[in-house]
């Protein structure tokens, strides 16, 4: 066996990966595919609002059924358990959307582990929310189509995030925290 044949035997396989320019809509519970900035922002906002409304209904119902009035001290543990169980699918949906968002900027979903590091997670969230995706097809697929309502809601949500951050920075700069501590 020649040295050229031996070198080729250990060479990494190569394949041309192609995607259709018309890609089907990403599935909700799938971690495959991509999700653009505005689609990610809009869907994150909508799922968060849905969970907050569900939480408010369950907590209000639990408080109404408890003997202590509006306090959570005597809240019905079954209803609070339902609230906790409702969090699991939402958590998986949010994680799968974040992975698809990372795919859009041509990064592996494993980078989502950076969200577990305190302080780093804040900058990571901003990075994922504000970094535009790649327009061309990448190794995770073709760019997905963002619907009209997703563009509107996503734009509003990103604007609210920017306004909140500017308010926080201005509050710290003007001594807002020191005024609260007195």
Helix/strand layout:
Layout: H1 3-9, H2 37-65, H3 77-104, H4 120-130, H5 148-173, H6 176-181
Helix pairs in contact: 2-3, 2-5
Task: Explain how this protein is built.
By secondary structure, the protein is mostly helical. The protein has helices spanning 3-9, 37-65, 77-104, 120-130, 148-173, 176-181. The chain has one domain. The chain is built from 6 helices and no strands. Helix 2 (37-65) runs antiparallel to helix 3 (77-104) and helix 2 (37-65) packs across helix 5 (148-173). It is globular, with a radius of gyration of 23 Å.
Q: What is the structural class?
A: mainly alpha
Work out the strand percent.
Answer: under 5%
**Helical fraction:** 55-70%
Q: On the 0-100 scale, what is the average pLDDT?
A: 79
**Helix and strand element order:** HHHHHH
Question: Mind describing the biggest β-sheet?
Answer: none
Give a short summary of the structure:
The protein has helices at residues 3-9, 37-65, 77-104, 120-130, 148-173, 176-181. With 182 residues, the chain is mainly alpha-helical. The longest helix is centred in the N-terminal third of the chain and has 29 residues, at 37-65.
Which features characterize this protein?
182 residues; single chain; mainly alpha
